[in-house]
Amino acid sequence: MLMRPEPFRELDRIARHAFGGPIRGRAQPATIPMDAYRRGDEFVLEFDLPGVDPEAIELTVERDVLTVKAERHPTPRDEHVELRIAERTHGACSRELFLGDDLDLDRIRADHRAGVLTLRIPVAEKAGPRTITVSTGDRERHEINA
Predict the structure, then answer these.
(1) Element (H, E) at 94
(2) What is the DSSP pairing of strand 30-31 with strand 91-99?
(3) Which of 44, 73, 107, 141 is most enclosed, with most CB atoms within 10 A?
(4) Sequence-distant (≥ 6) Cβ neighbours of residue 61 within 8 angstroms
(5) Which residues pair with 135 in a beta bridge?
(6) Do residues 97 and 65 make contact, with C-beta atoms less than 8 angstroms apart?
(7) Taking the model in full, what pTM does it have?
(8) Per the database record, which ranges form the SHSP domain (predicted)?
(9) Domain tally for the chain?
(10) Domain range holding 122?
(11) pLDDT tens per residue, range 67-113
């Protein structure tokens, strides 16, 4: 309902980890960690973007593809600083999701708090449960929940 799998993205991630570099001859942005769940009549997507300025986040929807792009810049340091450990990632990151037809992509809401980008996507009304009335030859009506 929410998304189709991205089989090659996971293979790329494994290969980058195993061989220590970009795959397919080009640098690729890091993948943004995400949780996705349904709450009532909406899907909620939560993306971890610690240290990313909300102004540096780009959200686009084209057809059924949602793309999240962001960039985290390193902390500016003066010339007298000697960096001893650098484990925090910097640079571009992105995530593409293939969304189902049963989501209302025109009413997506986005919120960024405490390093988490939260998107709320309503389920389209046509995708909700509905009752279908079935008539019989003797004019009785039976309702069936679909």
Answers:
(1) strand 91-99
(2) parallel
(3) 44
(4) 67, 99, 105, 108
(5) 141
(6) yes
(7) 0.67
(8) 25-137
(9) 1
(10) 3-145
(11) 999 998 888 888 898 888 888 888 899 999 999 888 998 999 999 99
